[in-house]
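Quick start: what a row looks like.
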Amino acid sequence: MVDKPSQAILLVDSYNIIGAWASLTELKEDRGLDAAREALIAALANYSAYQEYETWAVFDAYEQRSPASQQTITPYLSVHYTGYGQTADSYIERACAKFRNDARKFTQRLIVATSDNVHRQTVIGYGAEGISALHLEGEVLSTSQQVKTRQKTPKKRSGRVFGSLKPDVQAKLARMRFGHKE
């Protein structure tokens, strides 16, 4: 995904997150599951790019008769759909088990976001860090606020530009301002 190794790999139990974040639950009720899924993916895309985390948004396809698939959204975010009969929990647990034997474990953090306490304890047993859905929401909102603050440009009005002009140009502009024609 990313050319340089990310600081962390974040595995997100996506439907669990949708059910835990009030804004996504409300969006799901108003506009449907697809809208909530898209909003979560957009939030994770921004968050993972800012944090430089390799993020996997994992969605169950538990009752869908479709094969497992993966879609790259950004260099930092990919969406993983489990295969028929597989839960996001088992998919994430399997990824954590593989990571335990991966050399990246010495240079990267492995974080799993879910509010399922049993699932979180299981992945912690594999060496991952477990964070709750609400913790992730707080991080995403904080990151979003930091980005907005950083993007705001100060609207300073100062005479610095005028003062940096040559004296003859300043005089000409002053005459023009007072209605004197050249």
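That is the whole record. The chain has one domain: 8-177. The chain has eight helices and six strands.
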